[in-house]
Amino acid sequence: MWGRLVSATGILVAAAVLGAGMAPAAHATPPLLREESPAAAPKAAAKPTTLEISGTDNSKIVIQQAERPELFQRVLSEVNWLSGAEPTTTRPKADKLGPKYTVTVLAKDKATQLYDLYPLASGGPRAFRPERQPTGRKSAGWFYGRLTMSESLRVSGVPLEEKPDVVSGGIGGGIGEEVDSSEIDPVAVGNDVFHQMRRPFLINVAVLLVVLAGLGGVAYLIRRRV
Fold first, then answer.
1. CB 85 within 8 A of CB 60
2. Mean pLDDT of the chain
3. Helical spans, DSSP H, in the chain
4. CA gap 146, 79 in Å, rounded
5. 17-30 tens-digit pLDDT
6. pLDDT at residue 13 above 80?
């Protein structure tokens, strides 16, 4: 009887010791979670505030958005759309371009965009996006300029002839412009069309060849089984 009592007492003592040892673990305060700082929001692109127009004669015209907002927006609309646009034409011949005017877009005192404009190019205004941009490199490309390019530059101070018949608010690509047929270079136009159609044509040919190869393979397998 005494032996059983001792054994029971030993079991109770061991259980109490184990319980006391486990209690701190059970009631231990969990480690504090490290507060993660929220990810910093990307900085919004700075808005243009200044335009600089420079010509081949090293003259420079500066247009401040705060001083002449309407003129600023008018000239900005001639180039701002070129930033992410896909090229619409190839480089014209040098003798067909006419005078070049470089437009630099600045946000405060930092240049952000740079484009070359050719308002008197044969067949309609042209614009060029250089590969080297103030904020990095972009693919170089030629574009049909807006119909209002010449007038926008003229009212800014560029020495160009007035064109009152130009449609206000013209869009890029030369749509709606009346061009003298003698100024149109058929070879250049043909090259532009061929350049724009070449890629989809090659894709269609490749797809057709794949389809024909597949049909040929199916026909060969059927003949072998027969």
1. no
2. 76
3. 2-26, 69-79, 149-156, 186-225
4. 9
5. 444 444 444 444 44
6. no
- The SS3 of residue 80 is helix
Q: Give the pTM.
A: 0.58
How many Cβ atoms from other residues are within 10 Å of residue 22's Cβ?
10
User: In sequence order, which residues have a C-beta less than 8 Å from that of residue 120 and are 6 or more positions away?
Assistant: 98, 99, 150, 160
| CA angle (159, 81, 143) in 5-degree steps | 70
Amino acid occupying residue 167:
V
Is there a contact between 186 and 192 (Cβ–Cβ < 8 Å)?
Answer: no
Q: Helix, strand or coil for residue 99?
A: coil
CA distance 76 to 48: 9
Grade residue 129 by pLDDT with cuts at 50, 70 and 90: very high
